[in-house]
Specification:
Elements: E1 21-30, E2 35-42, H1 45-50, E3 58-63, E4 67-72, E5 83-88, H2 92-100, E6 105-112, E7 125-131, H3 135-147, E8 155-161, H4 170-178, E9 183-188, E10 216-221, H5 224-236, E11 244-247, E12 263-264, E13 267-268, H6 269-272, E14 275-277, H7 278-285
Bound molecules: flavin-adenine dinucleotide and FE2/S2 (inorganic) cluster (FES).
Length: about 290
Amino acid sequence: MMAQNETAPVPVCGPDTWMPVPARILHVKDENFNTYTIRLRIEDEIARNGYRWAPGQFNMLYAPGVGEAAISISSDPETPDNLEHTIRVVGSVTRAIKKMGKGGIIGLRGPFGTSWPTEGIKGKNVVMVAGGIGLAPIRPMIYWLLHHRHHARRVVLLYGCRSPEDRIFAPELEEWERNSALDVLVTVDNATGNWTGPVGVVTHLLGRIRVDAEHTTVMVCGPKILNRAAAWQFLQLHVRPEQVYVSLERNMNCGFGECGHCQYGSKFVCRDGPVFRFADIAHIFAKEEI
Ligand SMILES: Cc1cc2nc3c(=O)[nH]c(=O)nc-3n(C[C@H](O)[C@H](O)[C@H](O)COP(=O)(O)OP(=O)(O)OC[C@H]3O[C@@H](n4cnc5c(N)ncnc54)[C@H](O)[C@@H]3O)c2cc1C
Ligand code: FES
């Protein structure tokens, strides 16, 4: 989460925070059958040069004439020129951006929200748990940790998805699996094709790693059910709720704490999240209906 002593990057927007700036789609890459990654270039040079963000933050992407969607930044925070978003096609905006393709111009507001902790993990083990598209907001943190590998002790990524074909960043996952700086375990619900890796839900992978509760920071991003199961399992392993971070999703409108659209108990997901310390939301999490 954006540490209290860090200054949040100033959002790149038009004259007010509601107004997107134009950004050109430079490249489109299919990640799987329903998910693609776009590389963007903010058209205005001054806005582009001033654009900074932290792992875990998101932008509001606007498909002209269609609407806006909150999308996490999925690229390396230390190469801001290479600004990427990884998008699953679920509705009108995500479909329209895909249809525009390379060369298309969309609107961008952001970055918004809190980020994964970077200062608080000094000397700690880091365990990241991602499910499906949830790997997209985690990927910038993986890059950050690879750039600052001395910062943390052991770095573990546990990733789960429905089938091998559902994986996103598949070539990179294989690269990370070969990289001794990271411990990467990938599981699938259904082993199709020639999959020989683990089968089962991602939380089962917890049985394959040793968790030193006192010295471990956990970062979780996935569907609601995974966030819930993973957070509770780490608590059962005696990891303190202050050391567990969860990235949440809620329908967004403004993105900066003005409209109340993303209310989650007493919090706004766009401003107080999307990355929350579990200790701060455990009481809301416990109420299923919220
Ligand atoms: C902070 C944040 C970061 C996000 N990052 C990404 C990302 O990196 N990549 C990505 O593909 N998506 C991401 N999303 C989700 C994305 O914003 C929504 O899926 C968005 O609604 C897509 O817009 P659409 O017009 O294509 O679909 P819509 O027409 O808005 O929705 C299609 C379907 O998805 C459901 N839906 C809409 N919003 C949400 C939501 N927030 N949670 C659960 N279900 C929802 C709708 O009820 C509907 O059934 C993120 C959301 C948040 C809040
Ligand atoms: S989206 Fe408006 S307050 Fe969060």
